[in-house]
Amino acid sequence: MSMSRDEFESLVPPEYRGRRLNLNERIALDDMLAPPFPGPVRTAGAAGFTRNEQFEQRMDCCRAVVIGSAVGDALGAPFEFGPAGAFSARFASGSTENEMIGNGLWEPGEFTDDTQMAVMEAESIVAVGWIDEWDIWERFQLWRRSGPKDIGIQTQEVLTHPIGYPAAAEVYYAANPDSAAGNGSLMRASFAAARWSWGNTTGTAEIARRLSRITHGDPAAGEGRALFHMIVHNAILYRDPFLAVDRCLAFLKDGERAVFEDAIGPNADHSLGNGSVWGCLRDAVAAVRAADSFEEAMRRACDVGSDVDTVAAVAGGLAGAIWGMDGIPDRWIEPLHGTVAGQRYDADRLLNLCDELMGLSIPKHKARPSREFGRYWLPNRGPGSDPRADRHR
């Protein structure tokens, strides 16, 4: 069982409470909030030592969160902004035709900006070793300058705002208080949700809020991503994704809890479009809740209409946490691919990145200390590229 908020906060050392923390203190507290997942428990077998079955099952589900989200993204992309039911109208249930069809913009099996931004988050966490919002912001900028095929309106405006990080998201929210709760931070949550699913409910929720604030100043966007993280956490650790929703809702900030209760409850508010964080999570949760398999969840998610690729990406992450890699059809995994800041990623590379993030393999490009700034040389970046060195530029 997850600890309650009071139980968890009682474990936080007094010196961390009631004041602003510096970077080193935040790093230390992050480890307390969401400690790295435990290593495999090994048991002696006929052929030597084998990994504990529970560990393998959980790792399988973490990988499936990542691949499931990317698969949903690619499946939904050709139907984005289309009418409800378009997917089933194109592919009858039981059809043998591969549903990874692409369209004029996307190749068959190509994932969109949803997964591209998730990859950039994950690459940063692997390279730096913890969450460094400045580094993630710089990687988002690298990705934006590479000319992606699509980029969300809010994300584009925040990333190109002359004030830069960290104020750009807050400025956008202040100027657009009624439309800043988009699904753009929720859509890229798969890697981080998998990585911190091994911690505790409070920890993974706080991680989600921090990552959301990089581009989305509206607290609702952060609460929606936090709820996704918590549902994934319960699915992977306790095999209890939706029975625990009420418990997860209790961890949301008071001002947002009632809205999300209305959005994903039994009498869901369908007046909210799925381009919003509430509507997107509502449609994704409904698709997975009503399904008996990963395939059925994807069909339901791709039939919702409007922002189909993001709903399917979110639903794919949730469905992957439930049904694991075996539940995802090979015909959807094999053509999966995308280009992120000039680098090609297929399913194998996404899985390798997931393993690096979870600590199961050594990153191909490890961060190294930089003599100039005492921090890091990062992949595709030279000396002097630390964002703190020229943050006032």
Description:
By secondary structure, the protein is mostly helical. Helices cover 50% and strands 4% of the residues. It has helices spanning 5-9, 23-33, 53-76, 86-90, 113-128, 133-145, 153-159, 167-175, 190-195, 201-212, 219-238, 245-249, 254-264, 277-289, 294-302, 308-323, 330-333, 347-358, and strands at residues 42-45, 48-51, 337-340, 343-346. The strands form 2 sheets. A two-stranded antiparallel sheet has the order 1-2. Strands 3-4 form a two-stranded antiparallel ribbon. The radius of gyration is 20 Å and the shape is globular.
Number of strands: 4
Q: Residue ranges: pLDDT <50 for 5 or more in a row?
A: 34-50, 365-393
What's the number of helices?
A: 18
Global mean pLDDT: 82
Distance between the termini: 47 Å
Strands in their spatial order, largest beta sheet: 1-2
Proportion in helices: 40-55%
The helix/strand series, from N terminus to C terminus, equals HHEEHHHHHHHHHHHHHHHEEH
Please tag this protein with its features.
single chain, 393 residues, mainly alpha, two-stranded antiparallel sheet, 18 helices, 4 strands, 4% strand, disordered C terminus
List the SSEs and their pairings.
Layout: H1 5-9, H2 23-33, E1 42-45, E2 48-51, H3 53-76, H4 86-90, H5 113-128, H6 133-145, H7 153-159, H8 167-175, H9 190-195, H10 201-212, H11 219-238, H12 245-249, H13 254-264, H14 277-289, H15 294-302, H16 308-323, H17 330-333, E3 337-340, E4 343-346, H18 347-358
Antiparallel strand pairs: 1-2, 3-4
Helix pairs in contact: 3-15, 3-16, 3-18, 5-6, 5-18, 7-8, 10-11, 11-16, 13-14, 14-15, 14-16, 15-16
